[in-house]
Each structure stands twice: as C-alpha cells, then as structure tokens.
C-alpha cells in the first residue's frame, strides 16, 4: 500500500477529487458482479451512503476477493472516478486490497438484509452496522450536539449534577440503590433495620432520577444552566417510551416565569429538529423512505407551527366533550394517560400542545402554586406519536409555601436542607424543565420504540453488555 491519507466515505462523496488515488477503509455491505468485474459496496459509518469499489478481475484473482463477504473489513486504494452505474456519483477503481478481518457468511448475523427491528434488538451489539441504526445513531449525535449548541449560544452554562445522590424525595420515579454492603450479610441496627451508617457513603444512596434539585442550586448562582446526563428510573414500565437508563436535559433558569419557560421549551425543540433536518438530511430521508413516509412532513410541520398552550382544565373539558371512549375515564383531577394526551395532540389540535396549570395533587411538591390554591404552574409539552416529551414548571420560590407543601405531602426532607437553603438565602422566581433525550430522538427518527434509539437499552429484565 502507498502512504496515502485515508479519507472517509463521507469526504469522498462530498468533496470528490476525481482521477486521484484515494485510500478507503470500511465494512463490506455487499459484493456482486460477474467473471470480469466485481462490485463491492463499502460503508465506513461516516454516512449512510456506501462507496462502490470496482475490482477488475484481470488484476485481482478470485482467491484474493474470496474473503470479501458481507461484514468483512477491508482497506482499498484506487482511483476515484465518476460512476457509470445508477445510485452513486463516484466509485473507486481498485488498485490495492488489504483484508483486515473476515466475517464468515455462515455465522455473521447481519449476513442478510431486511432484518426486523425485533431481531436486531437481539443483536444489539452489531446493529449499529446496519443502515437503520447507523442513521439513528448519527441523528442522535447531531441532536446531542444541537442541545449543547442551543444552550451555549444562549449563554447557558452546562452544569454537572451528580449521578449518585442521597436525596430520595424528588418523587420522579423508583430509584436504583447504590451500595457496597454485602447483600448476603447486611449490617443491622439494634432495631433490625439495615445499618446504612456502615455503607460506603455513611447513608443510603441511589442513582439519580433527575438533576433538577441540584440544577436549581446552579441556576440560583449562575443564572441559566442546563444539565445533560444519564438518569435512572427503576419503575417497571415496559412501554415503548420508557427506559431504565435514559438521558435527560434539564435547563433551569433564574428569573424565568412559566411563560418564559414555555417559550424556551418551544424554541429549544424547534431548534433541535431544524438542526437535525439540516445536518442529517440523508439519514432522515432514509428513515422516511424505509419506515415512515410522513416523517419529514411531520418534522417540518412542528418546526413551522406554534405549539398550542392550553390549561389542564380546558384540556379536560375538551376530552369530556369529545364523545370519545377512553380506556381510562376522564374527570378533573386525573393524571392524563397517553390516550388522552394523544387525543388532544393528534385528533383535536393536530399540533404539539403545552398543557399547563395541572392540579397540585398530581404534580411534584416544588411546583409554584397558582392563586386558585388548586393548580400549579406546571407545563407538559405533548407531542404527536410520543405523548409527553417535556415536563416542567415554575418553581415555588417562597420558603413558607414550599415548606407547607412538603409537610402536607409528608416528604422526607431531612437530607434536603441544602435545597431549602435556595429559598432561605436570596430566593428568586425561577423555572425549568426536563426533556427526555430519547423521546426527542424517537420523534426525529420516526422510530416506534425507545429501545431502538439508544445504543445499549436498559429495561426491566435486560442488561446485556
Ligand atoms: P412519563 O409520565 O412519560 O412516565 P414522567 O412524567 O415520569 O414521564 P418526568 O419526571 O416529568 O417524566 O421527566 C421528564 C421527561 O423525561 C419526560 O417528559 C420524558 O420526556 C422523560 N422521561 C421520563 N421517564 C422516562 C423514562 N423512563 N424513559 C425515557 N424518558 C423518560
Ligand atoms: Mn412529567
């Protein structure tokens, strides 16, 4: 092989220097041809597109090409030329070939095309090599990048909240415990309870279900912050929209009221979707053509239209008057089920809806009480096909009101003195929200199951690799 710098397939297609010698490395998708010439479709993950490599059999023997089967990894040097064939603009006339690794056709699980998503979930260690998962994972990357860009451009600070926490009162979901105690021989107190004073941290600890409470410490110091990190919930929800380990983005803003919070949430989601449309056009087009013919239209529609803003009480009225039969009956005070959310979004308004001012009973203790004494300044952003994509609120900044909610709800606050200090010293109106990153990726990719938009999904009964 000549000392030539390797280029990615993306670079070769985007910026082709025709009639130069190029160097490319990747995994074989297919090989076909006849006894004069063989065509190999090579993919290196940089783009959904393959580059075609043409092997002239007057220069390569059958024996040399034999290891080139689907899944094999190869290194090729050759001349980049305009392609005669359909479906590609350039191709490589091979001069040199190096085989890195073979993939036995009898054993390689992705030998055939067109596997179901269920099958690929069983082969999660290899599925990033398929077109579908390559597309999803590149879009996921672009969205993560867009998140940071959006907030950085707005002057927000990325604030790292802990993954291991000793606060268990957020109430967002069941927690995974973190311990180094020997489970088969637990130390006990005299009363017989587990003696956590002898655990690693000297107290009971868990994986975080939300970075919000710590995020509020950041916002009341730096002004506007956001978190973007893993979140863990041990709830046994085997749904296509829940994971046990997911990534959440939680901006928290000092001096933001609920309306500012809604504006930010809407602008933020639209920015991320636009960013993906602009930077992942090929991948989104592929998913549109393969799985969901309305995907691109739906993405443009959401970016172009205002979200509906609707108080919970009016939402309930709409559901009551809808004449629709719901599995879970509707009345003021219920926590909306997915069927209710989707009726409002998909049937009634046909647009994303920001539902506000929920009954205090169904929302978290830290949300700001409205003057009616019954509802709180919560805002959930509801999306077509997804349901809740964002949950947020204006926070109660008044120490006494917050304390009386805590007492009403009997929340164990003994380890939460640090949170209450935000209300004792220089308290300010502030707001924030949480966006489940995988739900955003679900929406932008048009995938149906949240397990297909994260490389290594964690859900009840599943923790392979
Ligand atoms: P849901 O009602 O859908 O279970 P939630 O109200 O419990 O969600 P929040 O505590 O408000 O969720 O969390 C904020 C956001 O995090 C949600 O709007 C959603 O986008 C996302 N989210 C919550 N739980 C999960 C989960 N188990 N897997 C993936 N994303 C989640
Ligand atoms: Mn919520």
């Amino acid at each position: 092989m000549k000392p030539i710098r390797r280029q990615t397939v993306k670079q070769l297609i985007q910026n082709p220097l025709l009639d130069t010698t190029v160097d490319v490395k990747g995994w074989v998708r297919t090989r076909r041809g006849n006894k004069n010439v063989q065509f190999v479709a090579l993919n290196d993950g940089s783009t959904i597109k393959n580059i075609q490599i043409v092997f002239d059999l007057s220069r390569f023997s059958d024996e040399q090409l034999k290891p080139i089967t689907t899944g094999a990894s190869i290194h090729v040097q050759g001349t980049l030329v305009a392609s005669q064939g359909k479906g590609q603009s350039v191709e490589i006339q091979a001069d040199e070939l190096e085989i890195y690794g073979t993939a036995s056709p009898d054993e390689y699980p992705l030998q055939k095309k067109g596997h179901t998503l269920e099958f690929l979930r069983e082969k999660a260690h290899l599925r990033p090599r398929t077109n579908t998962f390559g597309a999803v994972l590149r879009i996921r990357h672009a969205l993560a990048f867009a998140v940071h860009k959006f907030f950085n451009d707005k002057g927000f600070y990325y604030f790292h909240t802990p993954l291991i926490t000793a606060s268990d009162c957020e109430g967002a979901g069941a927690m995974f415990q973190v311990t180094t105690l020997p489970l088969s021989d637990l130390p006990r107190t005299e009363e017989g309870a587990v003696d956590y004073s002898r655990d690693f941290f000297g107290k009971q600890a868990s994986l975080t279900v939300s970075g919000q409470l710590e995020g509020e410490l950041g916002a009341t110091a730096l002004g506007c912050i956001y978190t973007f990190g893993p979140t863990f919930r041990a709830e046994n929800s085997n749904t296509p929209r829940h994971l046990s380990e997911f990534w959440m983005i939680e901006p928290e803003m000092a001096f933001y009221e609920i309306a500012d919070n809604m504006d930010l949430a809407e602008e933020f989601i639209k920015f991320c979707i636009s960013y993906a449309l602009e930077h992942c056009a090929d991948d989104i087009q592929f998913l549109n053509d393969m799985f969901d013919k309305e995907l691109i239209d739906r993405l443009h529609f959401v970016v172009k239209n205002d979200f509906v803003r609707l108080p919970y009480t009016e939402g309930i009225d709409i559901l009551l008057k809808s004449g629709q039969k719901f599995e879970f009956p509707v009345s003021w005070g219920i926590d909306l089920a997915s069927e209710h959310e989707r009726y409002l979004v998909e049937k009634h308004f046909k647009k994303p809806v920001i539902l506000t001012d929920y009954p205090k009973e169904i929302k978290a203790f830290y949300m700001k009480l409205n003057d009616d004494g019954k509802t709180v300044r919560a805002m959930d952003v509801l999306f077509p096909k997804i349901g809740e994509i964002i949950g947020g609120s204006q926070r109660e900044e008044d120490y006494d009101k917050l304390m009386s909610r805590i007492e009403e709800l009997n929340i164990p606050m003994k380890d939460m003195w640090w949170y209450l200090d935000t209300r004792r010293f220089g308290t300010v109106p502030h707001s924030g929200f949480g966006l489940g990153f995988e739900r955003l990726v679900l929406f932008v990719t048009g995938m149906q199951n949240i397990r297909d938009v994260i490389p290594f999904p964690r859900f009840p009964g599943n923790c392979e690799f």
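The chain has three domains: 9-101, 127-167+209-452, 174-206. DSSP finds 13 helices and 16 strands in the chain.
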